């Protein structure tokens, strides 16, 4: 079931601040693993979303949770639904790659529906290759027996005809907020790691990434909880 299954996140209680919505909570990776494990229910499939601005550490946390939970969890990223560079060029959106309208949002929603339904023996999901800057289809097999799906991406809480359907398909959604200095440093390091010059890295971090971060930040109030994880330190955090 989706987000209508209230109370499915064992850590959601006490993470609210009246009309202001969720408030940041400092947590360790061990605590988050325990909270994710608590979402697993025998005979049911649960979908946990992890979101936050570019460089927040979404993929790093999602990968760590999936590794710790082993055969009980599968990781499916929203980034696998990036439109190809050729299609973005045709649409005149290549310079804005990473913005809401540079993804196949409907495709992502359809995948979540299939994962939630759990009627297929195996569902294959795409993955985004940062070295190629392209998505690779049918790269992640998700067998029906896996009880917990972890999905991460920028726009899990976004509104709109297509993106707005995502939140209702998630049983819980955690928003990562590491602090702006940390987040921007991670972004610069990531761009350098993938071959951009320092000037290009800074331009990207404060340009398109910055604009996307503002869009994502406006969605934080729809999260189950807002978290800060001290252990997440990697130049490729995203």
Distance between the termini: 27 Å
**Whole-number tally of structural domains:** 1
Strand coverage percent = 15-25%
Integer-rounded radius of gyration = 17 Å
Classify the secondary structure makeup into a structural class.
alpha/beta
Fold and architecture overview:
With 238 residues, the chain is an alpha/beta fold. The chain has one domain: 3-Layer(aba) Sandwich (Rossmann fold), CATH 3.40.50.300. It has seven helices and eight strands, in the order E-H-E-H-E-H-H-E-E-E-E-H-H-H-E. It has a six-stranded parallel β-sheet, sandwiched between helices. It has a two-stranded antiparallel sheet with strand order 4-5. The chain is globular and about 50 Å long. The chain starts with 23 loop residues before the first strand and ends in a 9-residue tail after the last strand. The N terminus and C terminus are likely disordered.
Topology:
Blueprint: E1 24-27, H1 29-38, E2 46-51, H2 58-69, E3 73-77, H3 85-91, H4 105-117, E4 122-129, E5 134-143, E6 148-152, E7 172-176, H5 180-193, H6 198-206, H7 208-217, E8 225-229
Parallel strand pairs: 1-8, 2-6, 2-7, 3-6, 7-8
Antiparallel strand pairs: 4-5
Helix pairs in contact: 1-2, 5-6, 6-7
